[in-house]
Amino acid sequence: MFQLDAEHVLRPVRSGDGAALASAYRANREHLAPWEPIRDEDFFTAEWQEHHARECEAEADAGRSLRFVIEAADGEIRGRANLNNIVRGAFWSTDLGYWVGAGQLRRGLGSRAVATIVQYARDDLGLHRIQAATLLHNHASQRVLTGNGFERIGIAPRYLRIAGHWQDHVLFQRILDDEKAPPASTLLGPTPRTSVKGRGGDRG
Ligand SMILES: CC(C)(COP(=O)(O)OP(=O)(O)OC[C@H]1O[C@@H](n2cnc3c(N)ncnc32)[C@H](O)[C@@H]1OP(=O)(O)O)[C@@H](O)C(=O)NCCC(=O)NCCS
After folding, report:
1. Which of 36, 40, 128, 157 has its CA 20 to 30 A from that of 171?
2. Ligand 1 pocket, 81 CB below 6 A?
3. Is residue 143 in contact with ligand 1, taking CB distance under 6 Å?
4. Each residue's pLDDT tens digit in the chain (204 positions)?
5. 142 CB within 6 A, ligand 1
6. Whose CA is nearest to atom 18 of ligand 1?
7. The ligand 1 atom nearest the CA atom of 105
8. pTM (2 d.p.)
9. Which ligand 1 atom sits nearest the alpha carbon of residue 100?
10. Which domains are delineated in the chain?
């Protein structure tokens, strides 16, 4: 678990999160709709989210992805940050995704969550690279990425189906393995419960 500020932590999604996740997605349905795939009604139920939370745990145990929530002190979920599609072999790369709740925007929470998860990907997972993709007009997300040292790669035409349409995206990356590890004091608390198997096993 990582402390993001006085009120929020970043921690892995776990079994039992279904109700809080459903509540967060219902509260942010309009806010997120322009930036995400179209969601079925089921997506907003505690049952669907609980199933998703269990899948997140299984994926983390298998080393395929690591999904986190931004959680307030009272247990409310106020955002997400995910390392998806963790691939090793000749790639050692992952796709980053994130959102912050409509009531907490522009307070630095998104930037801190991304800084923390990038540090985790570099220092704990030993990954070479993180990629992120934003819609062309998602200036807030682009600011979060450039503020965290991501470089623009270019435009990928019709890259993801967002809000029901295959839309062009700007791709960004940050290369991690040339970076010096920061002082341990910049990360508060122990590493998440989940571990990623295979680290160091198939780099080549
Ligand atoms: C993108 C998002 C996570 C940013 O979260 P946040 O907590 O508000 O971001 P921060 O407060 O850390 O702000 C980071 C920077 O973006 C800027 N910013 C934030 N919202 C902005 C907006 N709507 N327009 C322009 N700039 C914006 C801030 O001023 C800040 O700039 P600075 O680094 O120059 O000071 C949030 O807007 C969000 O969840 N959007 C919907 C989902 C989404 O787009 N996810 C990403 C998909 S790629």
Report:
1. 40
2. no
3. yes
4. 999 999 999 999 999 999 999 999 999 999 999 999 999 999 999 999 999 999 999 999 999 999 999 999 999 999 999 999 999 999 999 999 999 999 999 999 999 999 999 999 999 999 999 999 999 999 999 999 999 999 999 999 999 999 999 999 999 999 998 775 555 444 444 344 444 433 333 322
5. no
6. 140
7. 8
8. 0.90
9. 39
10. 2-131 (3.40.630.30)
